Amino acid sequence: MLNQIAAIIAMNVKSLPRRANMSVAAVAAIAAVVAVLLGFLAMANGLQQTISGSGSDDFAIILRANSSSELNSTLTKDQQDLIALAPGFARGPGGRPLVSRESYVIVDGIKKSSDTKANIPLRGMSPEGVALRSGVRVTEGRMFEAGLNELVVGAGVLREFAGFEMGKEIRFGRSVWRVVGVFEAPGSVFESELWADIKVVQGQFNRGASVQTMRAKLAVPGDISTPAAYIENEPRLNADIKTERTYFAGQSQGTQQLVTLGWALGIAMALGSLSGALNTMYASVQARTRDIATLRTLGFGGFATFVGTVVESLVLAAIGGLIGGVVAFLFLDGITASTLSGSFTQVVFAFDLSPQLLADSVVLALVIGAVGGIFPAWRASRLPLTAAFGR
Amino acid sequence: MAALFTLNDVSKSFVRGSDTITIFDKLNMQIEAGDFVAIMGPSGSGKTTLLNMLGGVDGPTSGEIDFDGTRIDQLSENQLSRWRADNVGFIFQFYNLMPMLNAARNVELPLLLTSIKGKDRKARVDAALALVGLADRAKHSPNELSGGQQQRVAIARAIVSDPKLLLCDEPTGDLDRATADEILGILQSLNEKFGKTIVMVTHDPQAAKYAKRTLHLDKGAFVEEVAA
Hints:
Shape of chain B: globular
Order of helices and strands of chain B: EEEHEEHEHHHEHEHEE
Oligomer: heterodimer
Structural class of chain B: alpha/beta
Structural class of chain A: alpha+beta
Largest sheet of chain B: 6 strands, mixed
């Protein structure tokens, strides 16, 4: 039986060039499905990784109770002072708690790709703020100085937006700021931000002494129970505390919609390409009616004929899947883009084509091939043998 | 000689719409081992239908077809595939070679249905091709061969697994006279030297002369038998 199946598979595959047009059409349709699907999934994957990858268990974020993001949180000066006293935070030299008071405002930038305005987050932070983030590295210039209108620019902002190069002066409303440094925070949302001194931001944007959030280094990584109990039991506080990882995991949930959309579109296109695969395989069986009937007359079994036809369809699908995967990898993997985040600001991320995504999309291609091959294969296995004697 | 094929009261009819078309009605015949039978008759007389039934490609509506003690009319589709692979070599009017395979690979096909290993398969293929005079064309694909050469490859394919029976459907119908005579000579030689039982459907009286006897079919019944 294996000999029969192998022989029929070899014959079917060898005969593909005789049906080049139909075969190429089926391969192209499947390649397009895979490339589009991978585009969506790589985008969602990159965005998800950027947002959720920003989180660490070493740090905690404190927001006003029930705030879904930094933008709609506010903490008054009194609340900030109470939070800074919370137990469970790591202490720096002199016993001072390692906390950063942070203001989060939106400013305009011009996107290089579209020459249109888009929102960029400007974060005012305490001097401790930089140390309360993992993997931040100043790659050019220096950090801002307290009290001055100085900006350090995330590498993502520098890539995607015009006018943020070192030494440039930028006007936000009535205030003028000078870029004094560029920082990298690989794979995190922080690269999409501008950083400045908290007091200057509060002053220039009329925020008074209030901030949006506070950030603290935890004494025990991942353990927020002690400060959470303190916040819960302090009647003057109305705040939530989360680890940074939990906070950003929540922020990344919106990307699931992108994944769902990608799969929905991919499956809709797959149904279209399925009809192409079915047509191709029916045409293939039709073109080889006499060959198939002859083989079966010689004694080859219907099952071997069935398997041979399904495998032919799978081979076409696999070629299409691989081409789609290679195209997506060459043109999409690693390219950067920016999109609106949950805070109505732009988050810069890189498309990320993981091996798992490639495998998933090739599986989809093979499913198209299998379904597209089964019905024509059934027809092939049931062809009347008298067709071998046809005139 | 012992009967290789015995047909007892074989009937064959088709239903087309509301009509039933009867091809054979209680046909009886015997073909002995080592016979070379030509079947002639006008179009629609049932020649090819008879050949299909002898080859287990089509079944009778009723009646018995016995091949060497096996009731092939009672075999399942899978059993018939096996039976054909073991016992029957087919030779078609249009050769029916696989265009994507070279001559040797085409001849090898029936051997893939056996347990014969690769080296022995090659030896048998070489011998079969040599027997039909095409040893030097083993690597040629069908489109590189003339019609006569293609039919020789088809004959090599039909005999490579050493079946008892060769069924030929207009084997020279697509060939010129000289080439047809060569092909018929090979068939005659296979019958006389190797004892193959051959049933050949043909329109060509010249071709029928190579057979030991000729049966004339008309309207589903044998109307005349002519011995060579």
